[in-house]
Amino acid sequence: MVNYMLMITADLENIANLQPQGGCDDPSFPYFFKVKCGRCGELSQKETCVILNETYPLPAGKGTTNLVQKCKFCGREGTVSMVPGKGKLLTQEISDAGEYAPLMMFDCRGYEPDGFVFSGVWKAESAAGTKYEDIDLSGGEFAEYDEKGECPVMISNLRSKFEVVK
């Protein structure tokens, strides 16, 4: 069992914070990433989707997980379980410091996550307090004009990484 924390950052212009539409523990937010087999090292060709409110019984034993998948190359089965309560929103301070914010923890058995895709619906708040909802970051950026703050707002240069957590 290895825990991986999904860490995200972006360039935020006049944006105070960024997070999934329903918060960091949004039960219906889809996390898309590829998985790398722990046995043979094969990286999945397509992204896998993991959602907090979608669970499946564990192949052996009791309990549930958010993903059960077989490696197409060696046939080994692996699981990915989401661990809510560990994420924080990405703030302007974190972004300006060139740091990453933790978004979601994944308990991986037999797999390693790789290459998070910014999809799903996000929300942000401008430095002036204007709220933006239903943001689509799949195109790599978001730009608007904040009437309240009388300035442009922008989210760009999206980056992510998975870090092993002890």
Q: What would you say about this model in short?
A:
The protein is mostly beta strands and 166 residues long.
Record the SSE blueprint:
Blueprint: E1 2-13, E2 15-20, E3 30-37, E4 48-51, E5 56-57, E6 64-65, E7 67-70, E8 77-83, E9 90-91, H1 92-96, E10 101-109, E11 111-117, E12 121-126, E13 131-136, E14 142-146, E15 151-165
Antiparallel strand pairs: 1-10, 1-15, 2-9, 2-12, 3-4, 3-11, 5-6, 7-8, 8-10, 12-13, 14-15
GO molecular function, one term: zinc ion binding
Keywords: Metal-binding, Zinc
Protein name: CXXC motif containing zinc binding protein
Structural write-up:
There is one protein chain. With 166 residues, the protein is mostly beta strands. It has one domain (2-165). It is 3% helix and 57% strand. The chain has 1 helix and 15 strands, in the order E-E-E-E-E-E-E-E-E-H-E-E-E-E-E-E. The strands form 4 sheets. A 6-stranded antiparallel beta sheet has the order 7-8-10-1-15-14. Strand 12 and strand 13 form a beta hairpin. The longest helix has 5 residues, at 92-96. It is elongated and about 55 Å long. The protein starts with a strand and ends with a strand. The model has no long low-confidence stretch (mean pLDDT 96). InterPro entries: CXXC_Zn-binding_euk. This is CXXC motif containing zinc binding protein. Belongs to the UPF0587 family. GO terms for molecular function: zinc ion binding. Keywords: Metal-binding, Zinc.
